[in-house]
Structures are given as C-alpha cells and as structure tokens.
Amino acid sequence: MADGLNEARALRVTELMTDYHGLLQRIAEYAPNPPPEEYFEDGYEVLRQCRAEAQAVLVVPYPVDLSHIPNGSGDQEKRQLQRIIVDASARRFQAKKIYLRAVAAVRWSNARNLILQGTPHGAQATQLQQASNNLRIELAAVTDARIVNDFRQADTQAGYWLQDDPPLATILNWIRSQSSH
Questions:
Q1: Closest CA to 26 of 101, 89, 78, 88
Q2: Cα(110)–Cα(41) distance, rounded to whole angstroms?
Q3: What is the distance, to the nearest Å, from the Cα of residue 76 to the centroid of all Cα atoms in its chain?
Q4: What is the C-alpha separation between 131 and 144, in angstroms, rounded?
C-alpha cells in the first residue's frame, strides 16, 4: 500500500542529484597542471586519480530497471523511488569522497607552491616533506563513515526528509555491484 510519501521521495532524489552535480562541477575545476619535473609528485598524482575516478562515476550507466515509468501504482512508484534514492545516494557518496581527496591535493599543491616561492633553499626539503605528510594525514581522514556522517548532519540541518536514505552498507554494496559490471 502506498504511504503518501512519494512526493517527498521525489524531492529527495532531486536534493541528492543536485549535491552530486555540484560536487562533480567542483571536481572538474581541479585540473592538475604541474611542471613536467613535478608530474609524479604525490598531490598531483592524487588529483589525476580524482579526475579519473570522477570520469568513471559519470559513465556508470543508470540502472535499466529504474528507467521505466511505473504504471501508476503508488507501491511500484514507491519502490522505484527508493531504488533511485539508493542510486543517487551512492553517486553522491562517491563524488564527495573524490572531492575531499581532490581538496586535500589542491591544499598540498598550494602549500608546495608557497614553499617553493618563499622559502630559502635549505629549508625547503623539510617543509615539502611536511606538506606531503599533511596530505597523507588528510587523505587518511577521508573515511566512508566520515562522509556518511557529514551528509547526515548537513541534510538534517537543512531539514531534508531522510527516511529512505540508505545506510553505509547499502551504499557500499551498490558501489560494488556497479563496479562489477
């Protein structure tokens, strides 16, 4: 039996996809363009990896079973919207993870550029190593649980309807199922 919440579900899909789209736009702004001698430095490798991962997320096809329009049954529409919420949540999750890693790499790049421009040559090696250490610390802090918790907190503060939002395990299962295709 339909529960009368399909409009809320449809709105939730819109919220999730808007976040996803915004994250992908911000990731696209981070185009690594290092000098050839710095091409393989840690942060630039992370940025290239982030762009490749974002491209991979973009080309994951929309599940065929979700692309047909239900025949008008409220229960069918509910199930379809719930599956779309899982799909959209997983895509947003992946984009956020990529985005946080890209931001850490950009912060590393900015720190590196400041060090190379303003530090006497003798002190550069230590400061460059510290910038790389900071990058590794930031990347290690990008955990699945952190991402889900950040989303839950932000979505709750925004007053979004979260009743059908999937738990982390469901999101990770969706991602695994899509990467096996």
A1: 101
A2: 13
A3: 29
A4: 24
Report yes or no: 81 and 9 within 8 Å, Cβ to Cβ. yes
Q: Could you tell me the pTM of the whole model?
A: 0.90
H or E, element range at 122: helix 121-140
The helix/strand/coil state of 163 is: coil
Residue 83 pLDDT class (50, 70, 90 cuts) = very high
Q: Which amino acid is at 24?
A: L
Give the residue carrying structure tokens 């599956």: 83
CB count within 10 Å of CB 154 equals: 11
Looking at residue 125, the DSSP 8-state letter turns out to be H
Structure confidence by residue, pLDDT tens digits, 140-168:
999 999 999 999 999 999 999 999 999 99
Report DSSP letters for 50-112, one per residue: HHHHHHHHHHSPPPGGGSSPP-S-HHHHHHHHHHHHHHHHHHHHHHHHHHHHHHHHHHHHHHH
Distance CA(52)–CA(46), nearest Å, equals 10
pLDDT per residue as tens digits for the range 9-26 = 999 999 999 999 999 999
Q: Measure CA of the first residue to CA of the last residue in the chain; give whole Å.
A: 33
* Burial category of 57 from C-beta neighbours within 10 Å (exposed 0-12, middle 13-18, buried 19 and up): buried
Scored b (16 or more CB within 10 A) or e, 86-102 reads: bbbbbbbbbbbbbbbbb
